[in-house]
Amino acid sequence: MARKKREKELQPNIKVRLDRRTVITVRDRSKLEFWKEKYPGLEILEESYEKVEETKETPKAKKSAKPKKDAK
Predict the structure, then answer these.
(1) Of 7, 22, 30, 53, which cross-links 18 as Cys (Cβ 3.0–4.6 Å)?
(2) How far apart are CA 23 and CA 45, in angstroms?
(3) What does residue 50 show for φ and ψ, rounded to 5 degrees?
């Protein structure tokens, strides 16, 4: 008997600038609070929710042989 596939949960992606040159991505609000303690001046750049997708390797198409130019 086939099993029903579970629906994937949405996980947040929160891009955060810690200082002028350091940008990180946080996936949990509790981790964001951790970084706020260490970097009180942090700035949230972007907050989005994306589905976690299974990584599947897709077969790459083989490159076709290019015809060689005749040297005359």
Answers:
(1) 22
(2) 9
(3) -130, 150
